[in-house]
Amino acid sequence: MKVYFETYGCALNKGDTYIMMTLLKQRNHEIVNNPNEADVIVLNTCDVRLETGERMKSRIKELRKFGKKLVVAGCFSGAEPGVVKTLAPEASIIGPQALTKIIDAVEGEKVFSINAERSEITPRVFEGKIAIIPIADGCAGDCSFCITKLARRTLRSYSMRSIVEAVKEAVKNGAVEVELTGQDAAAYGLDFGGKIKLSDLLNEVLSIEGDFMIRIGMMTPEQFARDIDGILEAMRNPKLFKFLHLPVQSGDDNVLKLMNRKYTVDEYKELVKEARSKIPNINITTDIIIGHPGEDENAFENTLELMKEIKFERVHLAMYSIRPNTRSALMKQVPDSIKKERMKIAYKLYEDISLSIHKEYLNKRTKVITTEEGKKGSIIGRTLNYIPVILNGVEVGKWYDVEIIDYSFFDLRGTVV
């Protein structure tokens, strides 16, 4: 059959799509790029925020109009299956931890499966020069605000063997960047009894021959702390981007407690301090939620002070939105008008800090690996600490010595030396 995929959300969701594509290609189904050409339409959904969930509802309604067999997969299916069933009674529903059921959904009758199952299938389908390979699904946390926990209920690490094989296949197919992704990458191996950690996996992957770079996906601070020595030691390897995505979510201890995060602000600062002391020029990226219940003016100011102190290169700012069946939804809410005003203030500070960081690269030379096409014929490359550099007149998938000639808060602009 001809199958069309449409994917929303994080890197893990994209990796899940590649796994489903792999399963179907192994059974000789054809992946197409247009829903009009397809026999089956697969919508891999996200549900992380209110507006995302609303977008998924609209897209389900729109895709039904094609009159094709419809499969709704991903986090929206896993967290709100009743809503999906109401919107599209005829659709198959597959949770993000039941990916192998895609075969039954495509080849057979309607499927409903949202329960976790263990699978060893890692992607063998890759697009472009960036390979996204899930290493673990689910997490060990229980954050009050998180609906994803309801969709990905169980921590499941993929075997080291299957991940290594996927990386080898990706490199063989021309990947120059391999992202090892998960809901919490540093939780890797906890479900194996803790005998294997992320650093063990990194050392195995880094031993693979080839000219490629590894990027570690998002990690919670508490799980990073569990393996900090091993991860930072692995990061000394020239094939590993000097990049850490450590979501802090708030700069206030009271709010962190309400969020059910398992660390304090001071503990987070110590992790960053140790990382920067061992890996010079490391890029610390974070996530911050603005307006979570319990965030008063003092708590918000504490978050701004943390941003100023740590000077994150990249901050993923999100205004808190109520998610159904989460504990935070039952708490007293911060008015929308206040959340919006705080978002403006936080975003302006983020821009100013990022501009000041990027300004330091002006007129300096750096090595850049090109990974993807950008806008208007440009090519996007990455520095060794994963800052994007916009180039022109170069090829994707190659290393270049670059001089930085301009910058914005979001990226650097360079020319090949």
Automatic annotation (TrEMBL):
Domain TRAM span(s) in chain numbering: 359-417
Segments passing through the bilayer: none
Protein name per Swiss-Prot or TrEMBL: tRNA-t(6)A37 methylthiotransferase
Function noted in UniProt: Catalyzes the methylthiolation of N6-threonylcarbamoyladenosine (t(6)A), leading to the formation of 2-methylthio-N6-threonylcarbamoyladenosine (ms(2)t(6)A) at position 37 in tRNAs that read codons beginning with adenine.
SMART domains in UniProt: Elp3
Ranges where the MTTase N-terminal domain occurs: 1-111
InterPro entries per the UniProt record, alphabetical: Elp3/MiaA/NifB-like_rSAM (IPR006638), Methylthiotransferase (IPR005839), Methylthiotransferase_N (IPR013848), Methylthiotransferase_N_sf (IPR038135), MiaB-like_arc_euk (IPR006466), rSAM (IPR007197), rSAM_horseshoe (IPR023404), rSAM_sf (IPR058240)
Pfam families to which the protein is assigned, alphabetical: Radical_SAM (PF04055), TRAM (PF01938), UPF0004 (PF00919)
GO MF annotation: an example: 4 iron, 4 sulfur cluster binding
Cofactor note: Binds 1 or 2 [4Fe-4S] cluster. One cluster is coordinated with 3 cysteines and an exchangeable S-adenosyl-L-methionine.
Family statement: Belongs to the methylthiotransferase family. CDKAL1 subfamily.
Keywords annotated in UniProt: 4Fe-4S, Iron, Iron-sulfur, Metal-binding, S-adenosyl-L-methionine, Transferase, tRNA processing
Cofactor dependence: [4Fe-4S] cluster
EC number(s) per entry: 2.8.4.5
Organism of provenance: Acidianus ambivalens
Catalysed reaction, written as an equation: N(6)-L-threonylcarbamoyladenosine(37) in tRNA + (sulfur carrier)-SH + AH2 + 2 S-adenosyl-L-methionine = 2-methylsulfanyl-N(6)-L-threonylcarbamoyladenosine(37) in tRNA + (sulfur carrier)-H + 5'-deoxyadenosine + L-methionine + A + S-adenosyl-L-homocysteine + 2 H(+)
Domain Radical SAM core: from-to ranges: 125-356
S-adenosyl-L-methionine recorded as keyword: yes
Domain of life: Archaea
